[in-house]
Design a protein that fits this description.
28% of the residues lie in helices and 28% in strands. The protein is built from 13 helices and 24 strands. The termini are far apart.
Length: 452
């Protein structure tokens, strides 16, 4: 009789804890059920469980998420870009100190270019019958951001090739926890038939019944806890080879309701709010934030961004500010609420000719009403552009920097939110040299300005 290995997996929760209570209860019951039946079962998270948009995550710098994973009984996780590049070096280095699960990442090294003490490049699990299951983990290759924080990230596919060569003769089953995205997962399946299963993440793709490529089964469960993945691997006990694979997803609204889910959802928010109730400033009057017309708070943030980066000029979109600030005490929670994004300041040096073309692109009339998703943006819509030390005359035909017409040959320093460097809005910025200010977010820039 074949042996069945059960693997349950989640990915890209992004601290959307509204479904977490029933996910946790479901996983705990399934793990107990399979173990009671004498079957082997593993729980894996494929990264981006942490997202600092949630006050609980912001206030605990992700350690609250680790406690939730402990409570649910996870066996291993890999990290996503939200764990990797939205925390400062020391906060990531201590994030998993209390973890009761393995953290598996095969392409992350510390400042000394060594494997961090809290991390494993792979881990070998063994079933009751002696089947050896090697679990590998890889995270997205966001080299400039890791480098700015002090980490050394290596090419995931190069590391994977080394590990597969090492482990294919040591393990009976190979499972990859991949926070790389669907395209890389498909390439891996084509290139590494030795791998039995790839559990995916990062691009928030949904594979309801998995996707088999070249004999490799891909699984992925979307985002925000909308699904829980379940993969079954049947192993011949004599040959210790996988002979059948099956994948499925459970939608969160089909899982049994947790008795405490509404209370827990509120508890996590309230706990975050309480921990963030630290005074940053005391305003003598309100600072309004409008998305489609000039208002003081977006302008203040734009000015602060320019000063923070020691730039000649800056621009940003007003939609970054979810709302304004009231008169009186401003707390860290207030700034987190109005600027929930994991977006960093960025400085770019470019010629006047290049700067003029970039500024002209901000005149796109469709952008202000665009419902923006991804790029670290946690708001609703783009909003109008706001400028600091950038002025226009003659129906925007003439552009001035610091009161002087742009000199096409002069070099300028432009400060912008880092999301504009990813190529979606300003493709030309991808090729230019950039300096990312990390781990500071825009809310830290605003806090500094308000505290002056």
């Amino acid at each position: 009789m074949n042996e069945t290995i059960h693997i349950y997996h989640t990915n890209d929760l992004h601290s959307h804890l509204e479904h977490w209570s029933r996910i946790r209860d479901f996983l705990q019951k399934r793990k107990a059920w399979h173990r009671g039946a004498g079957e082997d079962v593993y729980l894996f998270d494929i990264g981006d469980h942490v997202d600092r948009w949630h006050p609980f995550t912001e206030a605990t710098l992700g350690q609250g998420n680790v406690r939730l994973l402990n409570e649910a009984g996870y066996d291993a996780v890999t990290i996503g870009n939200n764990e990797g590049i939205t925390l400062d070096y020391d906060d990531l280095d201590t994030l998993y100190e209390d973890a009761r699960f393995d953290v598996i990442v095969g392409n992350l090294l510390n400042k000394e270019r060594k494997v961090p003490r809290w991390l494993k490049t792979h881990h070998m699990y063994e079933t009751k019958s002696g089947v050896k299951v090697a679990v590998l983990g890889l995270t997205a290759y966001f080299s400039p951001f890791y480098r700015a924080l002090g980490w050394n990230i290596t090419d995931p596919l190069v590391e994977l090739k080394k590990q597969v060569q090492q482990l294919k003769n040591e393990a009976d089953v190979l499972v990859l926890l991949s926070h790389l995205g669907i395209r890389d997962d498909e390439f891996i399946a084509e290139s590494f038939p030795e791998i039995d299963a790839v559990l995916g993440a990062h691009t928030h793709h949904i594979l309801h019944e998995g996707k088999e490529i070249n004999g490799v089964m891909l699984g992925a469960a979307g985002k925000y806890g909308n699904f829980v993945g379940h993969m079954r691997l049947e192993v011949n006990p004599a040959t210790k080879k996988v002979v059948a694979k099956k994948a499925q997803l459970y939608a969160h609204d089909e899982l049994p309701e947790s008795k405490q889910e509404e209370q827990e959802r509120l508890k996590w928010f309230k706990e975050g709010e309480r921990l963030l109730s630290i005074e940053v400033a005391n305003l003598p009057s309100p600072l309004e934030a409008e998305w489609f017309k000039p208002s003081p708070l977006p302008q203040l943030l734009c000015d602060a961004l320019k000063e923070w980066c020691n730039a000649d000029c800056s621009f940003l979109n007003a939609g970054l500010l979810v709302e304004g600030l009231k008169e009186g005490v401003v707390t860290k929670h207030d700034l987190h609420r109005i600027l929930p994004h994991p977006i960093n300041p960025c400085l770019i040096e470019l010629s006047g000719a290049e700067l003029k073309e970039i500024i002209k692109q901000t005149f796109n009339e469709e952008w202000p009403h665009l419902q923006l998703k991804g790029l670290g943006f946690r708001g609703k819509i783009m909003g109008e552009f706001v400028y600091s030390d950038i002025a226009f005359e003659g129906n925007k035909q003439r552009i001035s920097i610091k009161g002087e017409p742009i000199d096409p040959k002069q070099t300028y320093k432009l400060a912008i939110p880092d999301m504009f460097t990813f190529g979606h809005f300003f493709p030309d910025l991808q090729r230019l040299e950039k300096k990312y200010f990390m781990p500071e977010f825009l809310r830290d820039v605003l806090a500094s300005k308000l505290g002056e």
